[in-house]
Amino acid sequence: MTEYDDVIAELEIDTSIDLPRIEKAVREILIAVGEDPDREGLQDTPKRVARSYAEIFAGLHQDPGDLLATTFDLDHEEMVLVKDIPFYSTCEHHLVPFHGTAHIGYIPSHDGKVTGLSKLARLVEIYARRPQVQERLTTQIVDALVEHLEPKGALVVVECEHMCMSMRGVRKPGAKTVTSAVRGQLREPATRAEAMSLIIGR
Ligand SMILES: Nc1nc2c(ncn2[C@@H]2O[C@H](COP(=O)(O)OP(=O)(O)OP(=O)(O)O)[C@@H](O)[C@H]2O)c(=O)[nH]1
Ligand SMILES: [Zn+2]
């Protein structure tokens, strides 16, 4: 039994996340920026950051295959689209947040294999809760759909604001980055236009 066991259980954290090591590193960062890690307000900060990192990087230890293993046969071969899925991720270049919304559409396989709608939002979480770049987040989501649902087509659109462009660096708050990844039948202009109009027509 370690002092971290209750945290690991509460947050359902994968035990391969090394909480004491994060804590040590955060203490070092505080010293390096010129702070006193032993002053009252900062005493518990390394521990808090370790817990919060375990949460925001939990996706590194989660398998989208497990998530999408449960499918059901609905005989629905038309487009399914879940839009405006909010999420937070962490920029792998600066370790500050980027956040926004994801839109996921797919046309089920010939046998109408579909997944639960919540699983699409959970899929976003698995890939968002990692050190990320927006482009990779977008393609990982669409490729997981293709691999595990074998849809006739799939499309993912992600819109984000990056804190590394807002609070530092170029300092352009409000600038939005939009990325998309399209596979299969959704590459066809008419089908793609239908999906995009469903996303934009909010
Ligand atoms: N393509 C892409 N770039 C990103 C993403 N997140 C951050 N970046 C960019 O990564 C780049 C890193 O550039 P560097 O020159 O190595 O780092 P930097 O000196 O901190 O750059 P500035 O942010 O311009 O101050 C920056 O241009 C960021 O805007 C992302 O999700 N996708
Ligand atoms: Zn960044």
Automatic annotation (TrEMBL):
The pathway is: Cofactor biosynthesis; 7,8-dihydroneopterin triphosphate biosynthesis; 7,8-dihydroneopterin triphosphate from GTP: step 1/1
Q: Which GO terms describe its cellular component?
A: cytoplasm
Listed under GO biological process in this entry are: one-carbon metabolic process; tetrahydrobiopterin biosynthetic process; tetrahydrofolate biosynthetic process
Q: Does the keyword Metal-binding apply?
A: yes
Keyword terms of this UniProt record: GTP-binding, Hydrolase, Metal-binding, Nucleotide-binding, One-carbon metabolism, Zinc
Q: Residues in domain GTP cyclohydrolase I?
A: 22-199
Q: Which domain of life is it from?
A: Bacteria
Q: Where does the record locate the signal sequence feature? A: none
Pfam families recorded: GTP_cyclohydroI (PF01227)
* UniProt key word Nucleus: no
**From the UniProt record, which GO molecular function terms apply?**
GTP binding; GTP cyclohydrolase I activity; zinc ion binding
Q: Give the multimer and partner information.
A: Homopolymer.
The Swiss-Prot or TrEMBL record describes its family as follows: Belongs to the GTP cyclohydrolase I family.
Know the name of this protein? GTP cyclohydrolase 1
Organism name: Arthrobacter crystallopoietes BAB-32
Give the source lineage, highest ranks first.
Answer: Bacteria, Bacillati, Actinomycetota, Actinomycetes, Micrococcales
Gene that encodes the chain = folE
